[in-house]
Amino acid sequence: MKFLKTLLASFLGCAIALFIAVMVCIGFIGSIALLGQSSAPVVPSTGILKIDFKNTISEKAAPLSPLALIQGETSETTTLYDAIRAVERAAEDPGVKFIYMLPDNFSGSISNMEEFRNALERFRASGKAIISFTQTPTLGSYYLASVSDKIYMSPYGNGMILGLGSQMIYFKDLLDKIGINIQLIRHGKYKSAGEPYIKSEMSPENRRQNEEMLNAIWESIGGTMAEARGITVDELDDMINGLRLDTPEDFMESGLIDGTATKDQMIERLCTLYEVEDEKDLSFIPFDSYAMNNMEPVSKNKIAVIYANGEIVEGKSNENIGGDSFSDQLAEVRKDTTIRTIVFRVNSPGGSVSAAEKIKREIDLMQEQGRTIIASYGSYAASGGYWISANCDYIFSDATTLTGSIGVFSMIPEIGDVVREKAHLNVYTIKTHDHADMFSLMRPLDAEETRYMQASVDTIYSKFTRLVSQGRSMTVQAVDEIAQGRVWAGSEALEIGLVDEIGGLCDAIEYAASVAGYEDYSVVQYPKPMTQLEMLLEQFTGASAVFESPLESAYRSLEEVSGKIYARLPWDYEFEF
């Protein structure tokens, strides 16, 4: 009997403990969910719209993770669409007197900056002023500031505008020293993806395409800045090449700013413009809050904006464009009969060919149903990013977008010498057929295998050029002449017929509405961002981490890329901007 009482007590204790644990867990998850919910903030009805870029401007919504919320992080993102719509609404809002901008804090891509600056230009065209204050102007922040009626600089600041630059690292000498051999199979003389692994220096073709692309981007942003300040591009080039832009006095003498001011002096200027005598009478409207209140109109006419953001990868992915998960999202939109018009926002350097083809298939099915699909290109719409969108009915691109890169490649690493001589491991292969160990990484490809891989790459390249030919109403030969893996800036892509018009996301939406004949419309965005609760549940239900040795991890990484065929940009371009 005593044993039964003890057993019953233990069971009851465990049940109570389990119940408490479950309730605590539910409370914890509920708290996180509530913490992640944000209501539209209250903003002043009248005042100066202050754009200080505290929030990063991004392609699509990116809610903070539960862990970040627990740690007290508050940094959020404002989508490019919401930011542009907020500026457009401010132009018509009688409560917004003018814009006060602090461009030094901008965080985003060149193309995002281009689209946002264009929105600011439209704001100025409405008759309202923009005043900017910069302390340490860079090329990027000055590009934004140049849209302003007046630009002021701190008398204690300094600016370094040096032009556009990008670095490319070549690994061949290091790999030779280590004993790793990368076998590159590609089609396209400009398809330089993989080149850093097989060469010690840049090829003439790669240098040419990158120089011409950078120059095209500079012509766009440099020309815009020069025109805004009433000087020529040549004059601006001379200032930059002569390192004559450093001190506030340099900027004044060059005509790039309208004056210097400390923070308190800027407040005095704002008081004068706002027609008040004291700082306490100034009313600022925080831009991020104003953008959050940017309510979309409700209409039965829907335009879906579908974001293809990130690298194109196999399977499912929340961070990138998963071939399976993203095509499933497209299928959901396709089955929604209330959506007839779609803007396909592409911001991708490409990736897996097979994943890209799955996505393109869903786009084709939508068009077969009579859907109108307008493409809008962000920072990148290259290689696989161009593959999935080349057949769209009309294509908008930013002038600074990197696009094209119509080419294909495959890499097969060979690390047998490293394994044997450096790691002192002996690998023995047993196989049923001659080429079963072709992608084992332990030996180089033989001549027959190299021909096999080249034929596969050539076949996919031919398919790529044919689909571009069909989508852009060009001959395959004409496509091949501008393809060969070459990367183009958006302004160049317009000249050679890869895109139809220079314009941003909102331009594409307005064009889609006009094609559909909509006088009013609602914008619905896909994929829907995950809530904090969904993110938390995904972390709880996700697969547990597999711990590997560094050698195992390195081997697995090489094995994953070996033999796969990619349509991807050759580099992750990060311009010094």
Topology (SSEs and partners):
Blueprint lengths: L1 H35 L10 E5 L4 E3 L7 H5 L6 E3 H13 L3 E6 L8 H16 L4 E5 L4 H7 L4 E4 L18 H7 L2 E7 L7 H4 L5 H25 L4 H9 L6 H6 L5 E2 L2 H12 L9 E3 H6 L9 E8 L2 E2 L7 E2 H13 L3 E10 L1 E3 H16 L3 E11 L1 H4 L6 E4 L4 E3 L3 E7 L1 H7 L24 H26 L3 H7 L4 E3 H7 L4 E2 L2 H12 L5 E5 L5 H10 L8 H12 L3 E4 L9
Parallel strand pairs: 1-4, 1-9, 2-3, 4-5, 5-6, 6-8, 10-13, 10-21, 11-12, 13-15, 15-16, 15-17, 16-20
Antiparallel strand pairs: 7-18, 14-22, 17-19, 18-22
Low-confidence stretches: 1-8, 31-37, 543-547
Q: Biggest sheet, open or closed, and with what strands and sense?
A: 8 strands, mixed
What would you call the structural class?
alpha/beta
| Alpha-carbon Rg, integer | 28 Å
What share of residues is helical? 40-55%
Distance between the termini: 80 Å
Globally, the shape reads globular
Number of strands: 22
> Count of helical segments?
22
GO molecular function: serine-type peptidase activity
Protein name: Signal peptide peptidase SppA
InterPro entries: ClpP/crotonase-like_dom_sf, Pept_S49_pIV, Pept_S49_SppA, Peptidase_S49, S49_SppA_67K_type_N, S49_SppA_C
GO biological process, one term: signal peptide processing
